[in-house]
Amino acid sequence: MKHFYISSLFALITLTSLHGQDYLWPVDLPRRISSNFGETRPRRFHAGLDIQTKGVNGIELKAIATGYIWRVRVSSSGYGRALYLKLDDGNIALYAHLDRFSPILENLISLEQERLNSFSIDKYFAPGNFVVQKGDLLGFSGESGGAFGPHLHFELRDESNRPLNPLTNGFSLEDGRLPVPEAISITPLNKDAVINGSPLPQIFPLQRIKTREYAFMDTIHVFGEVGLGISVVDHMSWMNNKFNIYGAVLSVDDNEQYRVEFERFAYDQSKLIELERDYSLQRLNDGEFHRLFADDNSHGLAFISKQSNGKLALSPGYHRVSIKLYDALKNLVNIKGVIYQAPPISIAVSEIERAKTSVKFRIEPKGIPFPITHFTCYSFKSKGFPEEAIKATETSRDGNGMIVTLPLEDIDNKVLQFIGINNQGAVSSPFHTSINLAPADYMTVDLDLTVRHLEESVVIQVEVESYLDKIPELTLRNSHFLDLTDLQQVSPTAFITRPLSLEEFGGTTEIVVSFHGSPVRESWFPIRSELSDNNKQTAAVSPRGSCSIQASPTTFYNPTVYWVEDINSPVPVEGGTFLTKAYQLQPFDRPLQDSANVAIILPNYIRDFSKSGIFYYDKDDGWTYLPSRFDERKWMYFTSLKSLEAITVIQDTIQPLIEHIFPGNGGSYSFEDVQEIQASIRDELAGIEGDEAISITLDDKKLLFEYHPIKKEVTFRLKTPLESGDHNLVITAEDQVGNTSSEEIRFNIR
To answer: Quick one: which H or E segment has residue 422?
Structure first.
C-alpha cells in the first residue's frame, strides 16, 4: 500500500510535468536557477524561478511558446520592467527585472511614458497586437526594480493568473541531490500540552540512518494536542543554494495526517506564508520550519491538501511517525520516529552519600508510579551556561527509582540538572541541585521577565542572573489576583509558570515576582495586556500610557493577548535623535492577519517635531521609517504595521546625499561620451520613498528617469545625442520626513 502511494505521488508529478513540456527555456544559457518556487520572502511566497544570467545584464529573453504580449509594466520598484506573455495554452509567462524590451516594444513604451509624463506605466494589449512565436526575442535581462543583482525572475501562471511551479510544468532541471532534513519542531497546540516535560515548543535534531532515511534521535514524549514542523533544505546538483522542497507528507501509524505540495497558489493567499512556515520560531531566530499542521486560517491555502489537519491529539501509547520530503525532481527522503503519548512526569533527586571522589544520588518518580530506568545529568556554571553531560560511574535500581554515582571532580562547584525517563519512555521535567556551590542571594540577584505567547496560552518566564536554590512565586494583578506558586525551574537560572489561558492573562496590569523568606522580596513589573476580540476593536497601552496599539477584529488570525513594553536601552540611532522612549509591541512572534494601528504621544517639552516620524527597528537595516501622520491637537504620531516591532519617534534632520553625478560639474564631453545621465542618491535614515521623491531636469525639461531602490541610483538613457553647447542639469531629492537636497550641474558638449 505504501509503495503504491509513492508511485502514485510521482506519477502525478510526472503527468503534471507533461503539460507544457515543449516550453522553451527563456534564456539561451544552461538551465541554472538561484531561487525556486515557494521560497520565503517577506510576507509572501516566491512566485517563480530566479534564473541565472551569468551575473550580467543584456542576455536575450525568448518567448517560451507561441502567444501574444498581454501586458507590459514599468516601475522603479517591484518587478521593474516586466513583460506578461499570454500563451496559446492559456497559461501566462512573466519575465521580470528586464534591462530593456525588444526594440519595437521599447519604442512603444517610450511613447507611452511621454504621453503619460511618467516613467511608471502599466499597459495592456489586445490579442492581435503583439503576436509572438516560440523563440521570438522579447527583451534583455537586467536588474531593474527591486532586484538585488542581474537575473531573470520568471513566473508561469495559469489562466486565472495563479502562479504555477515551473519545475513541474514544463521546466524540469537536472538534479540528483536529495533534500536534507535538519530538525523537527513540536509545538504545543492547547493549554495542557507538554513536550518532553516542557510546555514550550521544542526542536529536536535528526540522525541520518542511510542515504534516504533519517530518524528521530530518541522517542519523544508528548501530552495533549501537538503539531510537528520540519526544517529542511534542498540543493541541486550544480548549486549549493538553499532551495524550497516541493512537498511533504506527515503520517502517523500509516495514516496520512497532513500533505503540502508547492504546485500553485493565488496571490491573495501570499501572506499565509506566515502560517505555513512557523513564524514564531523564525522570529525567535530558531530557524525556518514548515508547519505540518493547519488551522482554520491556513486551510484555504492551495498548497495544503483539503483533507489535511496535522493536529495530533494522540491516544495513549506509542505512535509511529513518518515524514516524507521530496523535491520537484522526485528526489525523496523519509524520516521515521516514535512519539509516546502519556501524562507528564516529574522526579525528586536527593543526595544520599558523599565519598572522597564521588557523590551518590537517589532519583525517584513523583506521582505516577512507573519506575525510573534511565536518566541524564548535565552540569552548568552558576550563571546558567551548560558545560557537559555527566556520566555515572555506577547505577542500580531502588524500588521505582535509581541510585546513581557521579564523579565529584565533574560536578564539584557546579549546578546539576537531572532528567529522568521511566520504563514507558516518559521524560520528566528537569530537577536542579548543586554541589559545593553557594546559591546567589535572592535579595540582590538581578531578575528579568519574559512572556511567551503560545498557540492557545501564555507562559511567563522569570530569569535570574545566577543560580538560585529558592523558587520564586508569581502573582498577576488584574480584575482579581491570580497567585502562581507552582513555578517550574527549567534551567539553573530560569523558572516558568504553568500555561495560562488567554482569559487569565488578558487584562493584567502588574506582574509581581516574590521570594518568601526573611526578609521578603517583591519585584513589580507593570504591564497592561489586552485580549483581542473578534467582534470589536480593542486597544492596549504602554505602562505609562504614552504608546498604544489598536487591534481590529481581523488584526490577529486567532485570539491573542497583546501589550506594549517599554524599552530601557534601545539600539542607538545614527544620524537622528530619539524624541520619545522606544516601545516593543508584543507578542512580536505572532503573525498579523491585517495591520495594527499604533500611536505615540510626544512629551510636552518637545516643541520642535519637524522632520520626524515613527520608526521601527529592523535587525538588518536598523531604524526604518514608517509612513506617519501627526495630530497636533492630540500631540501624537500615528502609523500602522504588518508585524509587531520595536518602535519610537525619531527626528532626522540630515539631507539626502546626491553624488557620483555624470556628467560631472564643469565637464566637457563629446556627444558620444554621454549616453546616460547617472547619479547616486542616498538617505541613511528616513530614506527615499521612490522616484516620486526625486526630480531631474535637463535644460529645464523634466526627465523620465529610472530609480533603482537597491543600488540607490538614478539613470536616464538618452534617446538622441545631446546638442553641442552648454547644458544645465538639476537633481532634487526629498526624504520621507521632508529633508531636501539639490545639485546643479553645468557641463558642455563639444
So the answer is: strand 414-422
